Amino acid sequence: MGDFAIRFDGTSPDAVGDPLVWLPEETPLAMPRQSLEAAPLSNDGARATRPADLVVRRLALLTGTVFLTFCVAIAPVILYARHGFSALEVIGLTIFLLLVTAISCWFTSAAIGLWVLMTGREQEDLSFAAHPPAPRTRTAILMPMYNEDASAVFGRLAALDASLARLGAAEHFDIFVLSDSTKLETAAAEAAAYVGFRSQAACRAFYRRRTANTEHKAGNISEWTRRFGGAYDFMIVLDADSGMAGETVLRLVDAMERNTGVGLIQTTPTIIKASTLFARVSQFSVRLYGRVAAAGLAYWSGSDASYWGHNAIIRVKAFAACAGLPILPGAKPFGGNVLSHDVVEAAMLRRAGWGVNDTAALEGST
């Protein structure tokens, strides 16, 4: 299979045999490659996931954008019109209006987001429970890695594991560390960190390293889906530098259990512990207005939102049935593997009738 994997489930190494092929029991799940032009190969039927007033929400965004753009355009149009429009002025004014339209759109979206948060409407579509019951389903937490600091990654996983244990929900979750690391010293550090993490973890924990990094992160996740996805209802995809609170995880699972037409819920991560000047500025700006912007985006995108590739929960069987990425014809960069896979996967889920939702209602996602 071209990978290196370790399994720790209480079985004696001597009883199993070769320790380099310890793996959780495989539960294969078909994940056919899709076509970007044709209909999905597997479609469970259209689902009523769109908010009833979604058209009204988008008309509000359009109205605010047009109004602001019109107001900003008055002065330059009058100025240029005094002596007639030259070709250069027309080009400059066109570029200016395009930029102002984009700024007006995002300002209007943020204003809507502020109104959403002030009126408590950020939970309107998915109705996240403040104190969700114990999950009735099984969820895999996937942590892809690629030559990252193993101690930092496993430290974040340990915090999440401890949070789930404190909430009494660890038995409903399995943690998979899916390494694509190419450096042998990094792989050795990962394996050592995993052994220490596993000895203390409340959740079942597994580690797998691929030596052939086929299709990069998208291939890493799809390979797991095809081999182990059949055992899980949902998967929470993280990045090596991301983390999530146990309370947030439980609220996501509960929302997916209740909203059976939703295929993906994307949380809004915040930046923490930034060190460089640029990162500190980004952290400050995200803290200042990130949630407002995210609330506006989630409100008018409804169930037609996008996926940012991490800190999201996904319905596994829906993902397998309709989000298998195609290999594009032709030479790179326009052919070959799909690199911006997250946006395409979200579009494929929505094309098949599954809701794709962003949310600004949940904290605890970093």
Q: In words, what does this structure look like?
A:
The chain has 366 residues and is of the alpha/beta class. The protein has ten helices and eight strands. The protein has helices at residues 13-16, 54-81, 87-118, 150-166, 184-200, 216-228, 246-258, 277-301, 316-322, 341-351, and strands at residues 3-7, 139-145, 173-179, 204-210, 234-237, 262-266, 312-315, 355-358. The chain has an eight-stranded mixed sheet with strand order 1-4-3-2-5-7-6-8, sandwiched between helices. Mean pLDDT is 89; it is low at 6-21.
Number of helices: 10
Order of helices and strands: EHHHEHEHEHEHEHEHHE
Biggest β-sheet description: 8 strands, mixed
Instruction: Assign an overall shape.
Output: globular
Instruction: Indicate the percent of residues in helices.
Output: 40-55%
Q: State which percent range the strand residues make up.
A: 5-15%
SS elements, strand count: 8
Helix/strand-derived category reads alpha/beta
Query: What does the radius of gyration come to?
Result: 23 Å
Low-confidence runs: 6-21
